[in-house]
Amino acid sequence: MKIGIVGYKGRMGKEIKDLFEEKNHEFVWGYDKDGEYFQEPPQIIIDFSLPEVFEKTEDYVKKFKVPLIIGTTGLRDEQIEALKALAKDVPVVQSYNFSIGIQLFLKMVDFLKDKIDGWDIEIVETHHRFKKDKPSGTAKMIKESLDKDVPISSLRLGNVAGDHVLYMANLGEVLSISHRALSRRAFAEGVLKSAEFVTNKKNGYFTFTDVI
Ligand code: NAD
């Protein structure tokens, strides 16, 4: 497929471009801080940038009338609503984490959440020093799955791709679930799966949970 990437010069943008090209897909369009790269119209747009770029992405998706895969974190509620409106015309896959491991993590949380009433519960997330938002979108997803207002601690250290730990403790024991992304490749693989998933869809709002 012919892909377009918003944020194509960024860490995730480059990883996604490399993976898709390895799989014989073609990078034909991009948008970044210094403007547009145009070779030909894309058949799909992938956005890994910043929330302030969202309205540009929205305009380009409408212009090219193509599916959107969006992994940008820190989106505002009204931007999520705008994505749902966009999904009436094109397929949209939105997730704050495109790794398989975090999907399994969320399933474990769903299994545990009714069994840990009265326990101390805390989330700790660690990311590289360049990450702009805090707490991470994934930590927010874990908190949402718990249906509880639990504290989140955020560490910004070196070049860590993404660590999440959920601690649960009573007076006699500590239980934890942890996930470590060893590189950004794990997220790019999920984006590729999502791109393949939307090829036969006309429209609709999906999360990565729907994809796997
Ligand atoms: P990055 O800073 O390396 O890349 C962001 C890109 O956006 C850069 O190329 C930057 O130049 C571009 N950009 C910034 N402002 C812009 C503007 N005004 N107009 C156009 N382009 C602009 O960041 P990253 O590590 O690649 O992460 C990008 C996003 O993806 C972040 O929101 C991050 O949290 C998110 N992320 C999501 C997942 C996931 O699985 N959903 C995984 C990793 C990262």
From TrEMBL:
One example GO MF annotation: NADP binding
**Residues annotated to bind NADP(+):** 33
GO terms of biological process kind: diaminopimelate biosynthetic process; lysine biosynthetic process via diaminopimelate
Q: What is its EC number?
A: 1.17.1.8
Binding residues annotated for NAD(+), in chain numbering: 7-12, 32, 71-73, 95-98
User: What cellular component GO annotations does this protein have?
Assistant: cytosol
Domain Dihydrodipicolinate reductase C-terminal positions: 101-212
Under catalytic activity, the entry for this protein gives: (S)-2,3,4,5-tetrahydrodipicolinate + NAD(+) + H2O = (2S,4S)-4-hydroxy-2,3,4,5-tetrahydrodipicolinate + NADH + H(+); (S)-2,3,4,5-tetrahydrodipicolinate + NADP(+) + H2O = (2S,4S)-4-hydroxy-2,3,4,5-tetrahydrodipicolinate + NADPH + H(+)
Where it mainly occurs, coarsely classed, is: cytoplasm
Membrane-spanning parts: none
* Pathway where it operates: Amino-acid biosynthesis; L-lysine biosynthesis via DAP pathway; (S)-tetrahydrodipicolinate from L-aspartate: step 4/4
Q: Where does (S)-2,3,4,5-tetrahydrodipicolinate bind?
A: 128, 137-138
Q: Which residues form the active site?
A: 127, 131
Its EC top class is oxidoreductase
Its keywords, alphabetically, are: Amino-acid biosynthesis, Cytoplasm, Diaminopimelate biosynthesis, Lysine biosynthesis, NAD, NADP, Oxidoreductase
Which stretches make up the Dihydrodipicolinate reductase N-terminal domain? 1-98
What does the UniProt entry say about where the protein is found?
Cytoplasm
Is Oxidoreductase there in the keyword field? Answer: yes
**Known function:** Catalyzes the conversion of 4-hydroxy-tetrahydrodipicolinate (HTPA) to tetrahydrodipicolinate.
Kindly state the subunit structure of this protein: Homotetramer.
Q: Which family does it belong to?
A: Belongs to the DapB family.
Q: What is this protein called?
A: 4-hydroxy-tetrahydrodipicolinate reductase
